[in-house]
Each structure stands twice: as structure tokens, then as C-alpha cells.
Amino acid sequence: MRPHGIASNPALGDITPAVLAIGRPDFPNILIDTLRRQAGVGHCMVFALTRAGEASCLLDAGNIPIGGDLGAAYAGQFHESDPNRDALFEGEGSAPIVLPSFAPRMYGARYRKIFFADSGIVDKCATAIWVDDTCFYVNFYRIVAQGRFSDAQLARLQTIAPAIGASVARHFQQATTAAPDQTLAALFATRAPLATLTPREREVCRRILLGFSSEAISQSLGISLHSTLTYRKRAYERLGISSQNELFSIVLRLLSGSRSLN
Predict the structure, then answer these.
(1) d(CA 246, CA 151)
(2) Does the CA dihedral 61-66-69-73 come out positive or negative?
(3) Beta carbons of 207 and 216 less than 8 angstroms apart
(4) Nearest-angstrom CA–CA distance, 243 and 73
(5) Which residue from 53, 170, 43, 173 is spatially nearest to 119, judged by alpha carbons?
(6) 212 phi-psi bin (left φ>0, alpha ψ -120 to 50, beta other)
(7) Which helix H or strand E contains 43, and what residues bound it?
(8) How many Å is the Cα radius of gyration of the chain?
């Protein structure tokens, strides 16, 4: 299913590199390069939120060293206290959503400390789009060294955000539909480096790729949340990666190099 907004959005020509990278392992890097060039974005994070209350971090790219930790924290519990949550779910539908301008007072003290003070984030802009039961929530950040977005940069983001959101949604839809569980099982059983993982590490990683939250993985496998996080950490170490989007990249690379598995 193709999200609305890609073909007709006049900003498409300005984000062509990101659109052309949809479905490719280098999509996260090309996306952040495009955002830096177009609107001075320092970091981008993408979350998937569902009506059932699940959340997962799909993409973490840019200049925030602890971005992966922030993504895990948000998906783990802080998505429930995001002041934009009501706007996201009230805006459910096929049209792109552009969230209100950033204001620190919108956030609770603990949220501000973890996601802004500790990380050095000084400004944020966001967009979102619903596709079926999933909201793809795309966040754009700037850190202390960059300063806040200028009026011109914010205006630029307002223009390109709907097309960026639709492109992100399509990218992760392709990653999911191109690799259903049976295909993932075959990849993890036969293809390096995925085949080097232990059986439990494979089960955890497969569910990460299918969009399960850490809590949902724990419930599915009948193990504790601590065990799920431990298996994920060990798997990432074994694969030489540190984030979920790198795991997606491995799978996309293997799929593109072995069409018989599609």
C-alpha cells in the first residue's frame, strides 16, 4: 500500500534522494543527509505507534550520541506521556499530520531531563502519518551546538514534512512486507551474519523486525523484559551493530542480494 502524499506533494523534487532510497539499506543515512541539506536537521528519529498501545523505534540517525538509548526509552514507556500523543491519535487517518511547535513547558520534568537536558536537544519539529493501524511518527531535532531552527528552516520543514513522512512510512512498509516471518526465518537460519545468532537471539531479532515492542516480545516468548533486552544486546554485539535500523539494514541487504527469498 502506498501512503498518500508521495506523488502529488510539490516538495517531492527537493527530497528526491530520500525517495529513491526507499527500501534500501542506506535509507537512514540518505534521509538525514537530505534533512540536513534542506532544513538544517541535526537528528531524526522515527517511531511506530499502534492503536493497541505498542511503540517501537524504527530509525535513529544523526548527531545525538545517545539517540539509541532515547529511542529505547521512548518506545519502552515515555511514548505514553508524550504531549503530542493526543494530537497523533486524534489525527488518525490517511492525511499527514504536522505537530505543534516545540515548547519545553509541554513536557513533564522527568521527560525534559532525559530527552532534552541530558541529550542536548534544544529544538524539535515533528510530522506523522497513519497507514492502516500504524502511526509513523517522524521527529526532527537540533542540539545545543546548532541552536534552534530558524524561521526559514521551520518553514522548510513544514513544506517537506508530509512528503518525508510518507517516504518513511513506505520505506518501513516495504521492509516489513518484503520480509514476512517465513522469509525472516529462512534468512536467520541460513544467511550470515544472522545465522551466527543463538536460537533465542534470532527469535528476539525477528520480532524486532516485525515491529514488536520489547514488552510484546517478552509476552510472545514467555520471558521477562530483562531477558528480552539482554538477548537483544547480545545479538547486536554479535552482529556488530548498535541500533534497530542497522538490523533492518542487514536484512534489506540480504534480501536485495538474494531475490529467491522474496
Answers:
(1) 33
(2) negative
(3) yes
(4) 13
(5) 43
(6) beta
(7) strand 43-50
(8) 18
DSSP string covering 131-196: ETTEEEEEEEEEETTT-SPPHHHHHHHHHHHHHHHHHHHHHHHHHHHTS-HHHHHHHHHHSTTGGG
pLDDT tens profile 139-196 = 999 999 999 999 999 999 999 998 999 999 988 887 665 545 667 788 888 889 999 9
Q: Which amino acid is residue 140, in one-letter code?
A: F
Q: Coil, strand or helix: which one is 126?
A: strand
What torsion do the CA atoms of 169, 166, 245, 114 make, to the nearest 10 degrees?
-100
CA distance 159 to 38: 10
d(CA 99, CA 88): 8
